[in-house]
Amino acid sequence: MVETQIAGRGIKDTYVLEAMRAVPREMFMPVGVDELAYEDMPLPIEEDQTISQPYIVALMAELAQIHPDDRVLEIGAGSGYAAAVISLIAEHVYTIERHESLAMRAENILSDLGYDNVSVIHGDGSLGLPVEAPFDVIMVTAGAPEVPESLKAQLSIGGRLIIPVGGHERQQNMMRLIKLPDGDFKIENHGPVAFVPLIGRQGWFKNNSITRKEPENKSPIVKLLEHDAQALPAPDSPHFGQFFDHLGEADIVLLGESTHGTAEFYRARAAITQRLILKHGFKILALEADYPDVSVLDGFVRNRDVPDIGKPVFARFPEWMWRNDEFLQFVSWIKAYNESQADPENMTGIYGIDIYGLQSSINAVIDFLKDKDPQLAELARMRYSCFEPWWDDLVNYGSTMLTEDYKSCEEDVVKMLKDVLLERQTYTNGYADNYLDITRNATLIANAEKYYRTIFMSSAASWNLRDEHMFNTLCAIRNSRFNSSGAPAKTVVWAHNSHIGDARASDMGVNRDEINLGQLCRENFGDKVQLVGFGTASGTVAAADYWGGSVEIKNINTPMPGSYEDLWSETSFDYAKLSMKDIDDKLREKLAENFMQRAIGVIYKPESEMMSHYYNARPAKQFDHYVWMHKTAALTPLPQSVEQEELETYPFGI
Ligand code: SAM
Q1: Which of 197, 200, 265, 540 has the highest local Cβ count within 10 Å?
Q2: How confident is the model at residue 370, as a pLDDT?
Q3: H helix and E strand count, the chain
Q4: Which of 85, 172, 199, 205 to mutate to test the pocket of ligand 1 (most atoms within 8 A of CB)?
Q5: Element (DSSP H or E) covering residue 648
Q6: Ligand 1 test: best mutation among 20, 26, 49, most atoms within 8 Å of CB?
Q7: 52 catalytic per annotation
């Protein structure tokens, strides 16, 4: 192949000829076409893409004038073949592929064959790879309508950009751009070629679910958004977290979600949190989840004893919210990270800040006291038995008490909390974790009693009680873990946008007298807090039809015209981030107006979406940053019953 198709056609670069001889092209072929591996033509691979003709790979590599110490960026990994050829010449090759399945396949083949100086990245390569720039060579193996500005910017002086460019999706000219010392380019045309299209924000445009507008039809605000927002790679890209390094300066980072059932939100928050832990010293992960259940997870990841909560964790509706594969993977990562820490003080702890989980907290308090103070444990059992009549119907606790002859549990739970607080030093031996467990569980019980007592009277009062409880729990957690200078440890919070987006900037604060966690954090900690909202336009979501119903995978409706999601879905971003401090005044003025925004919780009713899922908010004041994901998929709920072998490694089955 090399002698006839490549050297025979005039390729002279000896590095290229040697590399082409060394790479076993058949290993990159799909089954069924591998016997054609050495034919003089492009061949089909999965996802309707192609592995380039050997001569074209050699031509591009020769035009690129690759040297052994060059760092090369390839756009369009496809089968991984061209990356393998280049990797035998260059120091390191980064190759980006927009199809996840192809990226994974290429990565597997390359690593199986031992090409260890190649990094495969899943994402939109038309934007390049800013975090690794500049590159000595950029090779684009898909046809672009014009040369992407982002690629030009990521080339070093003297660097070569080889790219097929043409106004038709399948006809291009092979162009070479060489960056001159003054930043300008020498441009050469090396003749006609026919590549598959480069599809992406700075390539040809395509979206599978929503037809986006052509640039000339876009409104001024959409154009402003496109100008001011920063494109992001997909959340599972190894580089995703780096785009959030600026959050490392904050003390508390709150990461939202516009649904409770989207895989990408979990993955993105995991990637950001991982980065904050690894590079910026964050040690606390606080979740919109029940304290007692999460304390079991914390016991698992930090290898510490925790009180028995008497039931399986995350077993109550909506169990998929934390019992899902995406979260499981992240918890497993935290466990492994903690095991690598010599000093337990550096481990990451996981905590629940929500007000639910009353029964488990009661079990935890009694279990905690049973050896340390059996008499008080017995008293706790008696006092908490006050809830017996309502175990199956806690939401009616408040209303039944008014009309029937039932005694409120208020006095009992408050007395219990006082007793625990009085004796906490004796019981906990000064161990901050034990202290936190007993006081938070007793507090949760007292606040939950108040919550269920108020729930039927005013939804605003019970909402406020819940978010105040979240805030106070967060503060208590922060006062139990410290950084090396003695200040409370840096903290990440995961909760729904409706808890995190400042309530003063939405219907919640303006029309309903509601406060929330984001607002309380801003009021108390000022600019040491960063609020990050997340949104999506389309795809699927895991949610139930009604409270207590089983989880289903549902299609998300196209956003309401005029909504914030509608605005974003007109941009060409697949993934992007808007930082409010970086936007220009015109956009700030626009985003200071009210926009409808969609909130999908554990229940999603697409048929009555307008009534049940939209609220008004002023984006400019609501979050410090907004992360946009155009199309997303439902998270993966874990089965209800867990196999024995999982029990040994993971506490979901306890
Ligand atoms: N270099 C590949 C090889 O050796 O097998 C062949 C590449 S094939 C001709 C072009 C590839 O570019 C396809 O796999 C396609 O999915 C990918 N592609 C198109 N647009 C892209 C984009 N914006 N970012 C990354 N990859 C893209």
Answers
A1: 265
A2: 94
A3: 23, 20
A4: 199
A5: helix 644-649
A6: 49
A7: yes
Residue 182, classified by CB atoms within 10 Å of its CB into exposed (0-12), middle (13-18) or buried (19+), is: exposed
* Ligand 1 atom closest to Cα of residue 28: 5
352 Cβ inside 6 Å of ligand 1: no
Residues 594 and 614 sit within 8 Å (Cβ to Cβ): no
Tell me, using a 6 A CB cutoff, whether residue 94 lines ligand 1: no
Tokens standing for residue 398: 């408040």
What tens digit of pLDDT does each residue of 325-374 get?
999 999 999 999 999 999 999 999 999 999 999 999 999 999 999 999 99
The one-letter amino acid at 189: N
Residue closest to 17 by CA, chosen among 35, 4, 28:
4
Q: Write 406-411 long-range contacts (CB < 8 A, 24+).
A: 408/449, 408/453, 409/383, 409/384, 409/449, 410/449, 410/450, 410/453
What pLDDT, in 10s, does the model give residues 375-432? Answer: 999 999 999 999 998 888 888 888 887 776 778 899 999 999 999 999 888 888 878 8
pLDDT at 642 over 90: no
Cβ of 50 below 6 Å from ligand 1: yes
Q: Which residues are CB-contacts of 57 (< 8 A; sequence separation ≥ 6)? A: 20, 81, 82, 85
How far, in Å, from the CA of 65 to the mean position of ligand 1?
A: 21
Are residues 539 and 556 in contact, defined by beta-carbon separation less than 8 angstroms? yes
Cα of 78 from ligand 1 centre, angstroms: 5
Residue nearest to atom 17 of ligand 1 (CA): 76
What does the block give as tokens for 647? Answer: 């029990």
pLDDT of residue 392: 83
Q: Give yes or no for a contact between 451 and 462, defined as CB atoms under 8 angstroms apart.
A: yes
Q: Map out the domains of the chain with their CATH numbers.
A: 2-193 (3.40.50.150), 218-282+490-638 (3.40.1660.10)
CB crowding 390-424: b at 16 or more within 10 Å, else e: beeebeebbeebeeeeeeebeebbbebbebbeeeb
